[in-house]
Design goal:
Blueprint lengths: L1 H11 L9 E2 L2 E5 H16 L5 H8 L3 H22 L4 H13 L6 H18 L6 H23 L3 E5 L5 E3 L5 E5 L1 H8 L5 H7 L7 H4 L9
Parallel strand pairs: 3-5
Antiparallel strand pairs: 1-2, 3-4
Length: 221
C-alpha cells in the first residue's frame, strides 16, 4: 500500500502528456503502460493466475529453459498492457485501488514489482525517489527469491553489502562480495543498469570476471 501510494502520488503529479513518455528502463512502454502492467500483474497475482513461466524465467539456471520461459512471460505481460492501453488512465488507477483493497498483507512479489517500476518512472521523469524501506524490501526479495536460487544451481554465490545502510545479504560461503548503495545494488540486480553502470557504481572486490555477468537477474541493459 505504501509503494502504491508513493507511485500514485508521482504519476498523478505529472502532466497528462508526460504519461505518454517512453519509460527509459522499459523502452517498449510509456509511463502509463508501466502502470497498466503492474495492475495486470497484481490482479493475476491476487487471483493466483500468474503463469509459472514468470518465475521460471527468473530463477532457473538453464539458459535455454530461461529464454523459452522469458518469451512466454513477455507475451503474457504485453497482453495485460494491451488490454488497458486504450482505457482512460483514471480507470486504470481505479482498478488498481480496487485490487489493493483486497490484497493480503503478504504481497512480497507485488511490492517488488511496483518498487522497481516506481523507480523506473522516477528515473525517467528526473524525480528523486529512493524510499529506504521499499529499496531494502525489493533488494532482499530479488536476492533471496530470484538470484540466489539460480546461482545455487551453478555453484556460484554472491554476498551483497549495502554501504549506505550497513545491511549484508548473504547467500552462504564461499561467496564473492559486491558492494554499493542499496539503491544501486537493487537497480543492478533488477536489470536496470548496464555493465558499465555497474562497474562505475559498484565495488566488485575480487569477484571473478565471469561471475560478474551473473549478478543481474534480467541480464545487463
Amino acid at each position: 500500500r505504501h509503494a502504491k501510494a508513493t507511485t500514485v502520488d508521482l504519476v498523478t503529479s505529472l502532466p497528462e502528456a508526460e504519461l505518454d513518455r517512453v519509460c527509459d528502463s522499459c523502452p517498449l512502454w510509456s509511463i502509463r503502460d508501466v502502470v497498466a502492467h503492474h495492475v495486470h500483474f497484481l490482479g493475476a497475482y491476487l487471483r493466483d493466475e500468474v503463469p509459472s513461466a514468470v518465475g521460471t524465467a527468473l530463477t532457473t539456471a538453464d539458459e535455454a529453459t530461461r529464454i523459452a520461459a522469458g518469451v512466454e512471460r513477455d507475451a503474457w505481460t504485453q497482453s495485460g498492457v494491451e488490454q488497458r492501453r486504450d482505457l482512460p488512465f483514471d480507470r486504470v488507477l481505479t482498478e488498481w485501488a480496487e485490487l489493493a483493497d483486497s490484497m493480503a498483507p503478504e504481497g512480497a512479489n507485488c511490492t517488488v514489482d511496483i518498487t522497481m517500476h516506481l523507480y523506473d518512472i522516477a528515473e525517467t521523469t528526473g524525480s528523486v525517489v529512493d524510499d529506504p524501506r521499499l529499496t531494502a524490501d525489493a533488494l532482499a526479495a530479488y536476492f533471496y527469491f530470484f538470484l540466489s536460487p539460480r546461482l545455487e544451481e551453478t555453484g556460484h554465490a554472491f554476498d551483497l553489502r549495502c554501504i549506505d545502510t550497513g545491511a549484508v545479504l548473504a547467500s552462504g560461503p564461499p561467496a564473492a562480495m559486491v558492494s554499493g548503495t542499496a539503491y544501486e545494488l537493487l537497480r543492478a540486480v533488477g536489470g536496470r543498469r548496464s555493465r558499465d553502470d555497474a562497474d562505475a557504481n559498484l565495488d566488485w572486490h575480487d569477484t571473478p570476471e565471469a561471475d560478474r555477468n551473473l549478478l543481474s537477474v534480467y541480464g545487463w541493459r
